[in-house]
Amino acid sequence: MEEEIIGGKHSVIEALKSGRTINKIWVAENAQKHLTQPIVVEAKKLGVVIQHVDKRKLDQLAPGVQHQGVVAQAAPYAYAEVEDILQAAEQKGEPPFILLLDEIEDPHNLGSILRTADCTGVHGVIVPKRRSAQVTATVSKTSAGAAEYVPVARVTNLGQTIDSLKEKGIWVVGTDVSAAAGIYETNVFDGPVAIVIGNEGKGMGRLIREKCDVLVKLPMNGRINSLNASVAAGVVMYEVLRRRTQG
To answer: What span is annotated as the signal peptide, if there is one (predicted)?
Structure first.
């Protein structure tokens, strides 16, 4: 992939601000000025080519993406290495706070998770190369630009990555509805931690679950005993942030 299309006000402006290489920006002729003007100003400062076109052109460039009248052609998304994520935590002087996504397939879920990850200080997200959503225009749009700031690493074998993290003293915590302990009953979030979020339908795979040091569940008081994957991830991330803020 030689280029990537991203759409939406937040995605494009954050891509510009983060220093990502933007080759060209298309703005719809009838787009609302208050949405596009900050992008035009930022793009002109950086010398990025801006072209005003019919909205249908944007629909063709970014099919299925709610682009809000602005689309950019960017350099391909730069995935991080796991080591980069660990270094990011070290540079901040914080115990690692990592998310491991076990076959999260919906790009909207991945985007929402990245948005919350940025808000809660997650140092990085790790996804498998196969059977997992990757960072696309839809993910970027759903993340409101957070995809530009939260490092995402792709790994061939999530199980081996978990083993490697454990060797570095990081506790691997799986979220599972059948777990005995609730997220409010464990002290594991205070230290270096990697949270595993399972697939939208079937949860964590058996091998991944067996590799977890601790399994925790979210308390459920209603008739439905499961949450959307990105919502569940958000609840756990904010609990980690709460513990660390109070600690």
So the answer is: none
